[in-house]
Write a structure and sequence with these properties.
about 150 residues, two-stranded antiparallel sheet, 3 helices
Length: about 150
């Protein structure tokens, strides 16, 4: 079934469409928290953590990735950084050493739009086309290779 819709952009431009995919407004998969830890979820159901990626008011429960509330950029590279900090902090916690803080930084974002098209953005710079698609493929290749 094709539904014809008219959407209005931020600049009040009308666009007629046959099909619309809403690709924003992710809902974190935190249902497992609802029964016993709902008070640790924010209004959008992201997990509230401290600067060490620990659940607020809990020294031995850590969380990272797309489900935490402290980072607005939900990127794989951030989740990978969260994992490294969490591992380090679990070890340091067991050895009574100082924990490492997580400090979000502006990251380069590379998005694939197919095999020959992509977008790369960093701060005020943005580029689309074939070159970003090559960069995205290289990043994916490098990540897969690093896991072997």
């Amino acid at each position: 079934k094709i539904i014809k819709k008219t959407i209005i952009t931020n600049e009040n431009k009308k666009i007629n469409s046959d099909l619309i995919f809403l690709c924003i407004g992710k809902i974190p998969n935190t249902d497992f928290m609802l029964k016993n830890f709902s008070e640790y979820l924010d209004e959008k159901r992201y997990i509230k953590t401290d600067e060490y990626l620990r659940l607020i008011n809990h020294n031995n429960i850590f969380a990272g990735g797309d489900i935490i509330s402290i980072n607005k950029n939900k990127l794989a590279q951030n989740a990978k950084e969260h994992a490294k900090i969490i591992i380090n902090n679990i070890i340091n916690s067991e050895e009574n050493k100082k924990l490492k803080e997580y400090r979000p930084k502006e990251k380069i974002k590379v998005i694939s739009l197919g095999t020959k098209n992509g977008i790369i953005t960093y701060k005020n710079f943005s580029m689309n086309g074939f070159i970003p698609s090559l960069i995205k493929r290289y990043i994916e290749w490098r990540e897969i290779r690093s896991l072997k």
